[in-house]
Every structure is written in C-alpha cells, then in structure tokens.
Amino acid sequence: MIVRIMGEGQVRLDSSHLAELDKLDDELLVEVESGDESGFRRTLGALLEEVRWLGAPLPDDALEPSELILPSPDATLEEVREMLSDDGFFSPSGA
Fold it and tell me: What domain range is 11 assigned to?
C-alpha cells in the first residue's frame, strides 16, 4: 500500500505491517479522543517513525495514488482529530 505523510512524501508499505501499526494507531485514537496532548505527540511521532522505518520511500517525482494519508509530525491534535476515522488511520475498513 502507498502511504503519504503530509509534507514529507510517500512510502510503499507492505500490508504485513498493518497489525503492528494498528497498535500505535489505537493508542493515538485514545489520546486524541481524551485530549492527551503529550501522549498524542509521543504516539504520533512513534507512528510516523515506524511507517518511515518499515516503508520504502518512493522517489520525490513519483505521484502514486495514496491509499492512506497520515498527518505531518507537527500536526495539531485538532487537525488529527479531523483526519481520523472512528477506528483510526489503520482501521480494517480504512486500510
């Protein structure tokens, strides 16, 4: 699957990694819903770092359709709240 991190670019991510990413996604969802700013910041950073580490970056000039769009590392809690589905980014229906 192709994942875009806003402001950074795209990575190709093997679907075998979705289960482990879903754990961080679930944490992020709870933190966003509860308004836990410090937990949100920590988990968003960890989620993006994991996607970067597990994914293979696409060339800057590649324009593949993204199956999933993740917020930038400096996104606010409110911006992420607006982007999330009820099940998070890596929900079974969303990814």
Answer: 2-83
> β-pairing, 2-5 with 9-12?
antiparallel
Q: How many CB atoms lie within 10 A of CB 43?
A: 20
Q: Tokens 């990814």 label which residue?
A: 95
pLDDT digits (tens, 9 = 90+) for 67-91: 999 999 999 999 998 888 777 787 5
How many other CB atoms are there within 10 angstroms of residue 27's CB atom?
Answer: 19
What's the number of domains the chain is made of? Answer: 1
Residue 91 lies in a domain: no
Using alpha carbons, list the distances in angstroms from residue 29 to 10, 63, 69, 76, 86: 22, 29, 15, 14, 8
Q: pTM of the full predicted structure?
A: 0.86
